[in-house]
Every structure is written in C-alpha cells, then in structure tokens.
Amino acid sequence: MRHPLLISLCIAGSLGLSACEQRIDKDKVDRAFQEVDVVDESNLSDIMLTVADPNEAVSYFTRAVEDKPERIDLQRGLAKSMVRAKRHTEAVSAWKKVLQHADATKDDTVDLADAYIRNGQWKEAEETLNGVPPTHETFKRYRLEAMIADGNEEWKKADSFYEIAVGLTTRPGGVLNNWGYSKLSRGDYDEAERLFAEALKHDGSLFTAKNNMVLSRGAQGKYTLPVVPMDQVERAQLLHTLGLSAVKRGDVETGKGLLRDAIETHPQHFEAAVRSLRALEGG
C-alpha cells in the first residue's frame, strides 16, 4: 500500500528537481547571453570609434547614452566620436558631461583640454591642464602642454614638453613633426629639417612632415628634394612647395623651373602649379 505513495513522492521530487535544474540552466544561459552582449557591444563601440563613418558613430553613441545614461564608457564614446566628426563645440560639451560622472579620470580632463584646443579655446585648455596634477605624466598631456607653450611663445618650455612627449610614445612621428614645425616657425630651419627627417624615420607616410621638410630646406636655399619615400603625386606636390619657397626667397627663375618640373611630374593636370606658374610668367 505504501508503494504508490512512495512512487508519487519520487515523481514529485524528480519533477521539482527537474524544474529547479531548468531554472538554474536558464539563469546560466541568461548570464551567458548578457556576457556575449557586453562583448559584442564593446566590439561595436571599438568599430564605431575607428573605422565607422564619424557621424554614424555620433548617432550610435547618442542613442546608447540615451538608453544607458549611467555608462561612462558610452559617454566617452560619444565625446570621442564628436572629435572624430570634427564637431568640436559639441565635443567640448560631451567631455564636460563625462567629467561630471563619479568615475571620471585625469585622462578625461586631458581629453577635455584636447577638445578645447581643437575648438580654438586655448586659454580654457591651458586652465584645464593646470588643474591636472604634475604626477599625471602621459604622452597626450605633454603633447598638449607643448602645443600651448608654443602658442605662448615659451620656447624653452615647449622644447622640454616635446622632448618628454617623444619619450612617452612608441610612435613619435606626429609629435616630432609638430616640434619641427615649431622650430620652423621660429626660423631655426636646420633644426626643423632634422626633426622632420626624424619624424619620417618613424613614419614614412607623413606627407605633412615631407612638405614641412621641403619648406625648411627651401628657406635655406636648398632647392633639391630630400631623399624620403614619395610617390609621383607627392613628388609633384613637393616640387610645387619648393618652387613657391624659391619665389618667396626672391629666386624667381629657380621657382619657375621647379613649378614646370612639378607640372611635368604630376600624372594628371596639376591646376595649382599651373596657376602659380601663369601668375609668375604673367607678372
């Protein structure tokens, strides 16, 4: 007589255990999906901040921040995407909002200073960096400090900050180019040329460094192109720059010859060089 009861209890226990196991399994699956969602969202955020269209990235992060306003990583993504889209006034506002978050860091303050500079607000950028402790030593901080010192014509400070920044990165090509341009603006053409050459050793694709190097050579009366990697279009553009530099120094005939070389070198019609040459010959 007891067997049916025992069997019923066993069945009930078995069903209860099965339901419990199902709940546990469901919880595990839900957690697993949540983890996958976080990974996918992180990957998508990285894509939006690197290869995606800048304005599409702004739209993505704007929606994300509206959905999850407490997430500082999404707020940072919005601010960075604003910078990529060259929407600098909005970028300043976005970084200010990031700094209102409880988890904001000193790097966020430096990024606000960067946004100020991009927006032409140099005084605000300087004041912002002055609020960052000197113990916070990062490449970006010193690169910005150097640019501000340049703007203030505090040359010794600028050189010191550039030197520190170069030592804090494995990719110093860009900052060496900036340092060289600083020297070029001061009339220190030989040192500027050296810094541009050093920048190109680290990154041979920097056309601005090539063009600046030609400017520094032209200012010294060196009317030959430097030995640096360049394609045919770049060669034509650099000859154009060198030709204008020669004209600026008063070497008009040399300048005309360089402009003709630029026109002949370019694989297509080089309108800018043609206009320059016509202006000289007509004048």
Question: Largest sheet at a glance?
Answer: none
Mean pLDDT over the full residue set: 89
Instruction: Please give the alpha-carbon distance between the first and last residues.
Output: 122 Å
Low-confidence stretches: 5-12, 32-39
The count of helical stretches stands at 14
| Backbone structural class | mainly alpha
Strand content: under 5%
Radius of gyration from the CA trace? 30 Å
Q: Helical percent range?
A: over 70%
Task: Give the H and E element order.
Answer: HHHHHHHHHHHHHH
Total beta strands: 0
CATH topology of the domain at 32-103: Serine Threonine Protein Phosphatase 5, Tetratricopeptide repeat
Q: What shape does the CA trace take?
A: globular
CATH architecture of the domain at 32-103: Alpha Horseshoe
At the first level of CATH, the class of the domain at 32-103 is Mainly Alpha
Protein name: Tetratricopeptide repeat protein
